[in-house]
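User: Please predict structures.

Assistant: First:
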Amino acid sequence: MRVAFTAVPDSHLPSVDELLSIAVSALGGSERQGQVTMVQAVQQAIDDEKHVAVQAGTGTGKSLAYLVPSIRHAMDSDSPVVISTATIALQRQLVDRDLPRLSEALAKELPHEPTFAILKGRRNYLCRYKATAGWPEEDEQDQLFDPREVSATGRMVQRIQEWADETETGDRDELVPGVSEQAWRQFSVSAQECLGASRCPSGPECFAELARQRAGEVDVVVTNHALLAIDAMGDLPVLPEHEVVVVDEAHELVDRVTSVVTAELSEASVMLAVRRVGRLIEQPLADQLMEAGEDLKALLAAAPPGRIDEMPQVLGLTLQLVRDTAWRCVSALGPRNADKDDPDKAGQRKAAFTALDDVHDTAVRMLEAYGHDSETDRAEVVWLDGGTDRRPPALRVAPLSVSGMLRDKLFGERTVVLTSATLALGGTFDALAAQWGLGDGGKDWHGLDVGSPFDHPRAGILYVAKHLPQPGRDGLPQQYLDEIAELIEAAGGRTLGLFSSMRAAKAATEALRERLDVPLLCQGDDSTMLLVKQFAEDEPTCLFGTLSLWQGVDVPGPSLRLVIIDRVPFPRPDDPLTSARQRHVAAKGGNGFMAVAANHAALLLAQGVGRLLRSQDDKGVIAVLDPRLATARYSGFLLGSLPPFWRTTDPAIPRAALKRLAAEGT
């Protein structure tokens, strides 16, 4: 049941402009034109039942701009609005700060104080039934050979057990410090493994079900892109019924959805199925599945990692053996609802079915990825991940595009608002719209850039080191290290170094620590959160790192005056999925490089550049060491994806600007 109230006709509700004005005044802010434009655009999209993509630069106040019309729609329609984010940090910001303050500010203007809740995937909640059933047999083997790991995991398990007696939500994120996946999985179940609230002895007090119940009673449900995809594409709804979705951090949507629908097959996944089916079927049949898993293990250990364009005969036969043996085990288990009156046996059977279905269905997908007449008919790509010392090799399969899924399952059923600081690549929304499946049937949509409150040409310099050699594959050239050192010395530290690989970040750190007089931190020295905190609190400190820093750092003020980017962040040429997508686009007559690699680079480059200006008083320099940003034929596209900073290729200009800022102490 949702919160009961008497529905107020639309004409009796304040307009979004009025609500925004009230909210901004109550929260002590000032009106920003971009925010006003965005709130009107979101309301118009909801009224017209048309999708809208809104690019809103840092400082626009986009959270408020979509929350106000979302709350108004929830009040007017008695239907919740779903807000989806890519990161836990933004979820927490919405639930812990933005929504409580906004709800209080608008309470007197609306039929009731707006309500909200956060909803995550089932694996994020402690399973009360599993917590009382002891350590699952199938996981013991994971720890037999490393006593230190057993000890560390055991301590985490003990901490979870103590926390389980105290927690009111069962939400894993409440556990601080966090615990390993190995420890947490002893206390959680996937949606496929869950017995269901009606059959589980702990059903009435299930944390995941209580979270879903709360989500069904509120005006705004905050979730993540993965759960949004599972809800849209699954057979059973996970989220409460809703008409409107707001996708924040929408530049991440395609990658997060792709992760959800990517499947993996390895000797470990087959052996998990063998252990779970255990004594539930005749031993000779379980042994056959184990032998199929051993054959797969031997084959993957000998094969070279990378994309598999044509199915080798031996791999095809091995996948058929895994598929058929897993299916025989499924058949041997009998009816899926057997033992429904015995929770322990029902839980064992559900876990066995889940593991077997995963193995069988993934093998089927991989076999069906081949045999097409032409490259344009191919829908999925299969590759071998070579693994690491701690992770064995695994086969993976992923779709070449998720646009059709999104068009049919997400955009076809509801009104969607997509927003981010970075959506217009090369100056248009076309690239991301194509990846989302917009414009190809379905509802109408339009893109809108509401700008930024920052005066980019006055606040920042975009310097491209045109005189440097192009980056190579053999690490950072000495000229790059010299350039980095001179820029940092001019800035007096205060530098965020964004590198295309962890190897490059570590190499730069090692080479420059002795050379520079300022503290130099590198991602991996400690938790990223603590490193960013230390960087923000000590002005001379520099921080070097890779991908998570490109998008996850928010350090306003004088601690950050220089952002260094070592190279244009193209995907690796040997990345199986992106290279397959490039080839697929080219086979259809398109430009695979521009549609995939350049779009990827533009998106990440814009995110990295966006680290510099985080507040109205921020100033500084972005230094891109890769000369291709000034000289390559695609440089105009990349530059057109960035904010309008003042641009230069003269090395003296950024150094002089940084020295002035350092001398002024700003």
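Second:
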Amino acid sequence: MTRPDWLNLNGEWQLRQSATDDAPQFNTTLPERVNVPFPVESALSGVMRAAGDNRNYLFYRRTFTVPAGWSGRRVQLHFGAVDWQTTVWLNGSQVGAHSGGYDAFTFDITPQLNGGTNEVVVKVWDPSDTRQNGSLPPIGKQTKTPNGIFYTPSSGIWQTVWLEPTPVSSISSVDLNPNLSNNTIRVRVFTRGDVTGHSVLAEALNGGTVVGSATGGFAEFAVPVPNARRWTPDDPFLYNLRVTLRNASGAQVDQTTHYFGMRQVSVGMVNGVLRPLLNGQFVFQTGTLDQGYWPDGVYTAPTDAALAFDLQKHKDLGFNMVRKHIKVEPQRWFYHADRLGLLVWQDIPSLTAQDVNADNAQQAQFEAEAREIVNEHRSSPSVVAYTVYNEGWGERALADTQRVGNAVKSQDPTRLVNVHSGYNCCQSLGNPGNGDIDDWHMYLGPASPLPSASRVAVLGEFGGLGLHTPGHEWSPSGGFFAYEWQPDSTALTNRYVGLVQGVQNLMVGKGLSAAVYTEITDLEGELNGFLTYDRQVVKMDQARVRAANQALIAASRSLPSTARVQLPVNGRVSFQVTTPGYTDRYLRHQNSLAYTEVVNAASPALLKNDATYTVRAGLADASCYSFESVNFPGQFLRHANSRVQNSVNDGSALLRADATWCARGGLTGGGVSLESYNYRGSYLRHANAEVWMGDGSGGAAYNSPAPWAADATWNIVAPWAP
């Protein structure tokens, strides 16, 4: 939301740091200088104080003069974000207070203005993770003792401070919600002052041309957007919106300008698998963990161009999504994501990951900050999902987790809610079971939960490949961490491309719908980024990374159907390999183990018998199948420790399950693939002439990602032993 008039208050302020809860000082020069809006721990603040500094009380002071042209209007004092508890005085009078390190707040300072030089004093208390005075604020990755995956804190003012003149009766905010079913943008206007008898004119514009307009009040109303151009990562088209507040006589009182994207987020069945949909279509969401730290600014990017840089680099690397990890960026970051076309998963910053024991007031504060974050960003077209909890950090009870997840969904039902990312990890209290998303973390991975009828399956974190880049590293502890080290850029790129192939296999075979790689940049002592912490070096081959990511996205647009297929129960069949170059081979058993071998008309009878099975109704599920050896009746094809073999049916539940396979349309789009009954998403595949069960995610040699889909697709052919 913009107006033409405003005054930036960034720049040099006076500063006083204190270890005690002092009173503010007025009309008094403070001893230090700080460059707002950079946190005091940053080099760009000019202070660069130590992470463990115990002066948790910060006092900021500066003066300003209101421009003469603003006469007769109200003056709003805006703060983008201040960490964590803020009190503001103007000319010695308190004008307001705010708790929360990641949301914007505004005070009307008109009554306190003096007509000349005005003094603003800001007091901030930021205890970080010290538990000072019984505190437990949402902090994300901040810690007074940075090490490993936890980083330097960011205290005080860390986003822009500015003044804005507004009419006495004015627009305070506007919620925008596109409706693709009738090509409208739904608009709700919130106001300040007395708006009795007022109305709102909202005009949708393509560039400067009005394409639709409507008049309404202060409930939601619809503005037509005829033949609406859909916003997507490939075509992130933005419309403009002009909102005019009019008094009872129809005269303009206030006017603001906005933008919006016409897009819809939902879930739906695609080939029998629940998937996230954008504008009714499934596209795999592939992105990185983006934690938003900078070597010179810590929480605050050095420039607006730098703020956009990391997002543009996501596009350059072929990604279509970014997970903003337990931090909330300035509105400009969301604008860049909107215009560049990135799908944003916005995390709610967590309470500390250590020794969580939140009381009711601390839990309530976490939830209040979550509500404010949703309110501020619910109109951004790029934001498609909210992540409420991460790996159990700040989690005090599973019932709380479920309740807060439901509250976020109720607050914004137009987006997906990921109640707990990585509930399979760390100190998590377990699977919440609600929300739209079932989210695992797996390092290195990849891996996937199974989608259900109500939740899509995603891999919320994986990867973490590290590479040292001397001259571009900095660690506050002197140590460096990665989940797996690689010796050089080529090896790093090769490993990444293999992981992406594994992700693609999980998408096709298990129903995975999104994956988040750790991470876009190195961070202090964590060296698993695509880029170094200073953004000077791209550590992988960018062209190969882009090609792999784009191939994954393209594959999601034409997924093969893996619906159940029928096989001839009690009939004999043979299984022909479909992998190019090996189609003269067939599945056979030898000394009980399963192999593939060349079989032809001249082959001996024993080999032909070994390569023939009788199709039976599944021993564990009659809707699936079991395969009985024709020359060893009573022995069935089963997996044991992933290796496939013949075993006698001993009547046990384990044998029945291991020997049951569900026939599906081939993973390559033709033939048949045989999915394990008790390891959903894993399939019968051959590797180096041996036959195994695997999901193609990588790891063991038999589970190699390529050419898994072909190796796990078979032609069901006439039996070699009729």
